[in-house]
Amino acid sequence: MFDSQIGSLLALVALVASNPHLQLAPSARRIPAGTTFTSPQPYTRYDRGGDADPVFLLEEGATLSLVVIGANQADGIHCLGSCTLDNVWFEVTTLQFNTC
């Protein structure tokens, strides 16, 4: 089972790396409470062009699906309450989670 998971992960990494789609957002994209944002093109890379602000703000109960957060986005996603990340990938080597 572990080998199949590694194979699936490698296939997904290859898909993300070859995906030419990049969305540069001038401001954070707010996902309303209880709704789902699914990238129109699976595994599109979302970036803000810097690391100071989030790319997505998810309100209570919102879901984010099929996106890649760019490598320079230290503050990629803010959940304003509980939220769901479904097949969300980060182009980073270190993740930081803060809890309140």
From TrEMBL:
Compartments, record wording: Secreted
Pfam families: Pectate_lyase (PF03211)
Record keyword Secreted present: yes
E.C. no: 4.2.2.2
Classification lineage: Eukaryota, Fungi, Dikarya, Basidiomycota, Agaricomycotina
UniProt record similarity statement: Belongs to the polysaccharide lyase 3 family.
Protein name in the entry: Pectate lyase
UniProt keyword annotations, A-Z: Calcium, Lyase, Secreted, Signal
UniProt GO cellular component terms: extracellular region
Superkingdom of source: Eukaryota
Enzymatic reactions: Eliminative cleavage of (1->4)-alpha-D-galacturonan to give oligosaccharides with 4-deoxy-alpha-D-galact-4-enuronosyl groups at their non-reducing ends
Molecular-function GO terms, alphabetical: pectate lyase activity
Endpoints of the signal sequence: 1-18
Stored InterPro entries: Pectate_lyase_PlyH/PlyE-like (IPR004898), Pectin_lyas_fold (IPR012334), Pectin_lyase_fold/virulence (IPR011050)
Function: Pectinolytic enzyme consist of four classes of enzymes: pectin lyase, polygalacturonase, pectin methylesterase and rhamnogalacturonase. Among pectinolytic enzymes, pectin lyase is the most important in depolymerization of pectin, since it cleaves internal glycosidic bonds of highly methylated pectins. Favors pectate, the anion, over pectin, the methyl ester.
